[in-house]
Specification:
The protein is built from 9 helices and 2 strands; from the N terminus they run αααααααββαα. The chain has 243 residues and is mainly alpha-helical. β1 (147-150) and β2 form a beta hairpin. α7 (129-142) packs antiparallel against α8 and α7 (129-142) packs parallel to α9.
Length: 243
């Protein structure tokens, strides 16, 4: 009996990346090429809060897979390739996929909600940079003391990388005049906020476990403080017989 072919192995590129990471890369490549041929692909997949509120809910998850140009495709692809391998190993591949779509959906829903308050948040958006920024922040907070070299010459820690991503995003919003009312950088800021809260939440669970453990130890000491250690020779024991 012939063995069933494992089609997921195609997306590993010869075992170089997890299958889910390879699938995201292939999907981005195919979608971006299709969008360059037919602009209607962008119009159909972009995150546009105005249309989301009219019921076009698929836009909540399709917007990161179309990149605007070749450079964006190359840089986004490189970041997904690099971060995807490390985070899949640290989290598990399934959890990486969940986080990827979690950042995508969370940023889209947050942007749509903010569009009720800020008209500028209705600006359509496509491209994976908000999700990539969230993955960078998640990686940086997972490995805060790990050192990386920016452009091969500037050594920084993961904690510094997270600050650079946040500061760079805000600076870009200021310099393009889009910080007021969030504007086109709304998905970026929301995705970064979700990644930060999620990472801090994991730390909060550990802190909560430590607090409960401390309280349990304290209660144990309080309940046993009346007990006394008796030495093997019985010298620490109270007299048992009265003459």
């Amino acid at each position: 009996m012939a063995r069933r072919r494992d089609y997921t192995s195609f997306f590993t590129f010869g075992g170089r990346v997890p299958a889910s990471v390879g699938f995201f890369l292939v999907l981005m490549l195919v979608s971006s090429v299709a969008a360059s041929v037919d602009r209607r692909v962008v119009d159909f997949t972009a995150l546009a809060p105005f249309y989301v509120k009219r019921g076009e809910l698929w836009r909540l998850v399709t917007w990161p897979f179309v990149q605007g140009d070749v450079l964006a495709l190359l840089f986004v692809g490189f970041m997904v390739w690099t971060l995807g391998q490390q985070l899949s190993y640290a989290w598990s591949e399934r959890r990486f996929v969940t986080r990827f779509f979690g950042y995508t959906l969370g940023a889209a829903v947050g942007t749509t909600l903010l569009s009720f308050v800020f008209d500028s948040a209705n600006e359509p958006h496509y491209g994976a940079w908000p999700v990539v920024n969230a993955l960078i922040v998640a990686w940086a907070m997972l490995f805060p003391d790990r050192q990386v070299n920016i452009w091969g010459v500037l050594p920084v820690t993961g904690r510094t990388v997270a600050l650079l991503v946040l500061g760079g995003t805000v600076l870009a919003a200021v310099m393009t005049g889009k910080l007021h009312g969030f504007g086109g950088f709304t998905p970026h800021l929301v995705a970064i906020a979700i990644a930060w809260v999620q990472a801090r939440g994991a730390g909060g669970r550990r802190l909560g476990w430590q607090a409960r453990q401390w309280w349990a130890d304290r209660e144990m000491r309080r309940r046993t403080k009346h007990l006394k250690v008796v030495r093997k020779d019985g010298s620490g024991d109270r007299p048992r017989w009265m003459n």
